[in-house]
Amino acid sequence: MPNRPAISSMSLGRAWANHSINEKIAQAAAHGFEGLEVFFEDIDYLARDLSGVHSNDIPSAFPYQLEAAKRIRGICDEHSLQVVCLQPFMFYGGLKDRTEHQKRLDTLKEWFQLVKILGTDLIQVPTNFLPAHELTPDLDLVIDDMRQLADMGLEQSPPVRFAFENIAWGTYIHTWERAWEVVKRVDRPNLGLCLDTFNILGGIWADPASPTGKLPDADSALEESIDRLRQTVDMDKVFYVQVVDAERLERPMNDQHPLYFQTQTGVSRAEYLKIHGNAALQTFTVTVMRKMLEEYSTGCIIECGLGSLVTGVRQLLLREYKDTHPIIHINRCLRYVEKYLGLSSENHGMGFLRDCDVAHRECSNLEYYNLFDQSSRDDSTLTQDSEQPPPSKAPFFLKNAKQEFSSFLDLVISRPAHHVKSDAIQGDDFYESSSIDLFPLECRDRSYLRSVRLSGLVNKTIEAHDLASGEDGILLIVDILTPDILTLVSEYISIIRRAVKIPIVYTVERDGSERFGGKGVDYYFTLLHHGLRFCVEYTIVDINSETTKIQKLIQTKLPATKIIGSYFDPHPGERGWMQEDRKTKYQLGKSIGCHIVQLTQPAITQADNEDVQYFSRLIREQPGPNNPFLIAYNVGVRGRTSQLANRIMTPVKHGTILNDTKVTFDNDRPFDPQITLRNAIQGLFANFIFDPLEFYLIGRQPSVSLIPPAMHRVAYGHCGFSHTFKIVQVSSCEDINKIAQSPKFGGASIMIPFKTLILNQLDQISPQAAAIGAINTLLPLRRATADSSGGIVPLPFALQPENRNHAGPVVKLFGDNTDWLGIQSVIVRNLSPRNAIDPVRSVALIIGAGGGARAAIYALIRLGCRKIYVYNRTVERAEKVARHFNTLYPEKGTIIRILPSLTTPWPENEEPATIIISAIPAHSLGGICSPPNFTLPEGWLQSKTGGVVAELWASQSPIYESHRSILIDLPGHGDSDSPHIDYNVELFARAVGKVVEQENLKRVILIAHSLGGPIATMFLRLFGSTSSTRAVENAVVVAGIIYVDSFLHLPESYLNAEERRSLGQARLNDEKFIADINTLFTSDTSEDIRETVLRTMLATPKHVRAVAVTSMTQPHALGYNEVYEQVPAINIIAPNCAPVDRHWFHHLPLLKVKKMTGVSHWLFLEKPEEFNQEVENFWRNISPSSNHVTSKLGSP
């Protein structure tokens, strides 16, 4: 019988990690497998989903398991997959407790029903690996148990077979030889072997603690073992073979696992315990641990689990070790541990885990809080439909944690935040880019901190997703004291870091020692030291505290953290800034070793605002080495002028509009700002500190760019800038130079063909632009110095941050390239872990050979990709790009290879491309080039594991057949002046139908926003059909409907005619209408969102509001449930969408609803990434042949 490829469902992703069995089976079939080894865990977790109980204790679990097995069998049948085995029937054979033995046999009877449903006759039984005290070493008893099991299988119809597998960590049977002895002596036709490569090699060949990854004489031992197997084992008794691999780490990871212990003692832990007793075991374990810490003190990762806390001696070892080495305590939310284990918080086991957290904290000097990834589980789904589970996000599960932990390690070892792990390439050692993020907050011309109180985060008056509002850093103020305050701080530092990628300034509010419940100064410093464990970028400490405690804080911190010594004078008296005491406090901060000194006081009179500016100038101009940076301003309302004048790290409050009615005049707390970021920026322009500048988009045909002027103007207005943005069409580099010589020139985005043409005319370019051979950003240099001959030499761009937002003569021009950053970000964000870039295996395909293609290649090289294929219509240009990069990095071999034509087959023995980047325009560019008209060959798109497709142009380039996107603005909205039109659902639906007809669309996916929901439903009723049927002649195939923040059809009983009319009449009264709109927001919805929604909604004429809303609330013959029965549909809603909490919502059991988490208002204007992912997943589900992710770079 020929071998047929099968795969274990466990190998495709664990169920507890939220890997959907539907998706796993689909992937197995898509990759050519013919069989599936079902892991019981998949049945168990699907049964939990069916029961609605997600704990270990499902009441009457077996009926749900039977149903789960039926569904798995049905999905396998749909994909022509045969279930070859159910495994593992664990912990059977040799049990001392014979009551437990009988329970296992009772469970076996249930498994007989499961395998019959699954359509297989095979159950895999692994050798027992329970602790030695629960098992007998008597092989005869094990043989009797296995004979009993086999005989029960023979009684079934058809008979059930059993495959006995040796487990490398089995307690008494851990080799294939011992397993074969059992099979032979049982002597039943339905008992055979499962040979597993991992478990065979794990005992005689592999050693994870060895630098080579192998045991001494491993190869010869393996060869001898295989020879013995061939000679002794009857191959008819080998029921199946498992091929399992494991990857050796570049540097061995040593933890205290049994194999490492065994290399030191010659016996397992269990055997050592039996021979020598527990006291001797603990003593020797300490010896092993000490030896491990000494031998692997550098160049290694050592993992210690709960076993490291068993004795006080081990804890003492770790406490000593942390004085010279970083020890990271990886923490996580115990609520999810409780939920996963199905335990209550009062359970003894949970108490033990909480105690372990305390011990781990004492034995470590760093801490990483591993946030639960909400995107990994569809907890926000409001209705359950077991037939069609939500799209799996398994390929990206834990990606956030991976990136965040990598960033944390960057801070631990003081590696630049923008570092990407790759071989050293040009520019890595001197990263001089235009990104302001590369300058520390204290080195910027101006920097601002979003002030956030921990109490606000805990009480949900501040949402983490609203923290990204334009400031340079987050000022986190610990202002509460709870029994779990350390854990709260840990959790919310991680929440902030996931929400925003900007520095954290950490401080503890100190309103007297009473805040700390009598614990006073010691607890204040406990909280400060706790912040240091997370490598926060800045920590503020009160310099009035005991000097030795501050110095210990400074000695404890890692280089990534800078200490800010702060002094707040609550009662300054008259002209406080002119007193000698202020200079003394600054010098105290310097003598202690603070990197920055912060001095504040309430403003008594306006003169204090002038005095603080004088004091700041005095400090900045004083001579002396290593002077700390100074933050100085007055707090409170009267101090707002000085807050505008302060240059670095000024705290600001959130919002864009500051109403005087919201100002608290008696609030003089040092960390409570009285200005917003927008106030600050507007104040700088109003006082002529900043100058209005002119920014440009320049190209041969710039109108096709992704960057509309309106987007820039709105952004400028939102942040308070008085700049302008213009699109300029030019024909030569000289035209660009003329524009750039204006004293008001602020910078320009450069488009083709000038990205490469202007390169040689620039005075300075970044190392990245030099490596790429193209720029996309042009910036002015306004400071210069004289060289030895008297000539003008511009200062490097990195030395000119203070010239941003300032007009003046342009000395020279600086060119940079930021395209690669965006491309790199899209690749990293969207490439699944399975397709993670590997220098040997990963392959990329670039379409084009211009500036965008060069930036894409550079990004890929930085990420470690060493096989990049380029296709371009003009082969000569592709060859030029290949020569450029292959010459630039000759030590890396031939990185760039050419595909000369579309008929060129994909190279033999080469992996398919998992990264495809299109860097060609989708249109003609003023005669420079004609629009492309081709489709990539199918042979170039054969990745079975998916990948990333990124397009650098807004318009859809026909590199592959995909969907068109058409935005339809319904008639009667906005500026309508036709009061007599009878606006209603049918009219709107027919308007949509007209567009569809004009565009000759045959198959559509409808994305229906708000009132567009009923219109989409009506469109389906009037013009649509499903993919399988056509209801009317020339009907459009509606492949799916995505409702976004959509009204639901109301049942007739919910609103009567009078109530519907009243709804419409309310729209005629602006005050009532505004009040109605205000219900769309939550308390933390920003002012700019409120203004935008109000302005847009009020622009709709009153008669349109009334008629449209009345008609929208009419019950319709075709409702959502009926739609969902015909076509795939989903409703994506914001958290406070009105229908969520209304009782009529529950009349729609069939409609899948996805509740968003990344938005704070209904009718959310800026779609979060979660929304894009949901649309993408929906598209994948209804277009199963599409296995690539498409991302539009720069698309709004």
TrEMBL record:
Annotated Xylose isomerase-like TIM barrel domain residues: 25-257
Residues of the Shikimate dehydrogenase substrate binding N-terminal domain: 708-778
InterPro entries on file: AB_hydrolase_1 (IPR000073), AB_hydrolase_fold (IPR029058), Aldolase_TIM (IPR013785), Aminoacid_DH-like_N_sf (IPR046346), DHquinase_I (IPR001381), IolE/XylAMocC-like (IPR050312), NAD(P)-bd_dom_sf (IPR036291), Shikimate_DH-bd_N (IPR013708)
Family matches, as SUPFAM superfamilies: Aldolase, alpha/beta-Hydrolases, Aminoacid dehydrogenase-like, N-terminal domain, NAD(P)-binding Rossmann-fold domains, Xylose isomerase-like
Domain AB hydrolase-1: 951-1173
Pfam families the UniProt entry points to: Abhydrolase_6, AP_endonuc_2, DHquinase_I, Shikimate_DH, Shikimate_dh_N
Domain called Quinate/shikimate 5-dehydrogenase/glutamyl-tRNA reductase: residue spans: 844-886
CDD domains (alphabetical): DHQase_I (cd00502)
GO molecular function: 3-dehydroquinate dehydratase activity; shikimate 3-dehydrogenase (NADP+) activity
Lineage: superkingdom: Eukaryota
Name this protein carries in UniProt: 3-dehydroshikimate dehydratase
Biological source species: Talaromyces pinophilus (Penicillium pinophilum)
